């Protein structure tokens, strides 16, 4: 029904430069309510009525923030569904993922490229971590609460270790290249 959460993943990170003409996104996200709406939409696409309930604010206030977020290309309408009264209502989702806000003289294109590589590395290590966990550390076998063999109580989560090393490597890569951009 709704697009998958990673529908915009191939677009890479959207870099918003505070010193450029990207003020609409920053202005739209300056409100705590707007940030709460975006956080909720990152969980799953939903309607303004649901957003009003979960953010504990009025539907009018939610529509105000959605209009601002949509104008800034932070959220978008991805579908329409019938509400409980039979009227068609919009379903909203984040317009892209992730959103990075920078300030200063950073080279935008280079920063986007560095972030794309770092995010790609994290994804690759996540897959490698799952594979390593499955191959190197199979789960112990339990039936009805009784242990039937295997490793006993616990084993080192190999997949988590591989993923953690990958995340640290990606962060280090991003930090080193970001510092090079500052020079």
TrEMBL record:
Superkingdom of this protein's organism: Archaea
InterPro entries documented for this protein: ArsR-like_HTH (IPR011991), HTH_ArsR_DNA-bd_dom (IPR001845), WH-like_DNA-bd_sf (IPR036388), WH_DNA-bd_sf (IPR036390)
UniProt keyword Transmembrane helix, yes or no: yes
Keywords carried by this UniProt record: Membrane, Transmembrane, Transmembrane helix
GO molecular function: DNA-binding transcription factor activity
CDD domains: HTH_ARSR
The keyword Membrane is assigned to this record: yes
Domain (HTH arsR-type): residue spans on this chain: 24-108
Short name of any one Pfam family annotated for the protein: HTH_20
Regions crossing the membrane: 118-136, 156-176
Protein name: ArsR family transcription regulator
Organism whose genome encodes this protein: Halobacterium hubeiense
């Amino acid at each position: 029904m709704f697009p998958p959460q990673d529908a915009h993943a191939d677009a890479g990170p959207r870099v918003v430069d505070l010193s450029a003409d990207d003020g609409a996104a920053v202005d739209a996200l300056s409100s705590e309510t707007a940030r709460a709406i975006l956080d909720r939409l990152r969980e799953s696409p939903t309607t303004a009525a649901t957003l009003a309930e979960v953010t504990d604010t009025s539907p009018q206030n939610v529509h105000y923030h959605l209009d601002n977020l949509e104008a800034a290309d932070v959220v978008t309408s991805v579908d329409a569904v019938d509400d409980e009264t039979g009227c068609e209502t919009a379903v909203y989702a984040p317009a892209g993922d992730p959103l990075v806000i920078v300030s200063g003289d950073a080279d935008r294109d280079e920063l986007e490229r560095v972030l794309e590589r770092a995010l790609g590395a994290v994804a690759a290590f996540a897959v490698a971590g799952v594979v390593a966990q499955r191959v190197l550390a199979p789960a112990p076998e339990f039936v009805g609460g009784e242990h039937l063999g295997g490793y006993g109580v616990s084993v080192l989560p190999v997949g988590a270790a591989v993923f953690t090393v990958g995340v640290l490597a990606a962060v280090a890569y991003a930090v080193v290249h970001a510092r090079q951009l500052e020079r």
